[in-house]
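Progress note, project year one: complex with guanosine-5'-diphosphate.
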Amino acid sequence: MARKKALITGVSGQDGAYLAKFLLEKNYQVFGGERQNANRDFWRLKKLQLTNEIKIIPFEMLEENNINKVIREEKFFEIYNLAAQSFVDKSFTSPVYTSNVNSLGVIRLLEAIRYFSKKTKLYQASSSEMFGTTKLKLQDEKTYFQPVSPYAISKLHSHWMINLYREAYKLYCCSGILFNHDSPLRGKEFVAQKIVSDLAQVKFNMKSCLQVGNIYVRRDWGYAADYVEAMWKMLQQKKPDDYVISSGKNYNIKTFINKVAKYYGFNILWKGKGMNEVAIDKQTNKIIVKINESFFRKSEVDRTFGNSKKAKKTLAWSPKTNIDDLVKIMCESELANYI
Ligand code: GDP
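Model obtained:
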């Protein structure tokens, strides 16, 4: 039997790499879409030893003609749209670019599918950032959105487009509203990996301390390798729909720091308040964590807390990795760089 063809846009990112691995294990023929000016260092694919297994093709979310041509020629069975300008912070300095890729790019993709490959199933990476400052404590598919960054607004735009194309044109398209998910393949722009990486440098005397912003925001954190399975499961249902994918637990950044510090063998004591709060390593009496105002956000999502009951019931999906396991996976992988 011919292998099913799947396209992953944004294949060089964290989720792209884990998803590629997952689909290859399911015997898909995996195509990886890459943007024109991407730095072609596929370190994540290399780390998972996938570089020879994936066909990398140029796929530019800003180029309608390129998208149309690829969709028309390849007639993919499934497309996973993970390509995005995905840094919340950067979206404040590049709001137009962020919307062009994250919002208009998705319309380009939907139009190409509608005209040239109507049977292709599409997964769209929505984000828990869309909930923003919503007042509801536990967020599910019916929770109202209150986005507070250009990134979140751009993702919400494409979220509604997916809904529209599903209803109006009967396309098979789904949005996965994924809460934060991290792994050793995460970039240091995200706080979890920054903590894991910087505290390792402190441990090996390569850095004096970790500097972070607001440590009292809470995040619902999961493991990326668990979450890509949910993406695939969404596309295997009779009817397309949207799903929240989350761990159902949340912790503040300070707790994450404590867990990583403990894993690395630090015994830390927090002292002071506000901008003067610091964590001291009791063994050496040195400050190893400081607060730095420049890492505070212009507008902040104080807490994310997802309810993925629908995914559990319909997709038979639930997370396999809890926060302690995630910390262990990330720290172990980081320490391997120092051996
Ligand atoms: P996000 O939830 O998608 O924005 O993922 P991040 O990992 O970038 O940020 C999670 C939270 O950590 C946000 O609320 C940030 O304000 C907070 N945070 C605190 N210090 C830092 C830092 O140094 N870097 C980053 N990226 N976030 C930080």
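The first strand starts at residue 5 and ends at 9.
Residues 88, 129, 180, 189-192, 194, 212-214, 217, 219, 253, 295, 297, 300-301 surround guanosine-5'-diphosphate (CB under 6 Å).
No further modelling is planned for this target in the current period.
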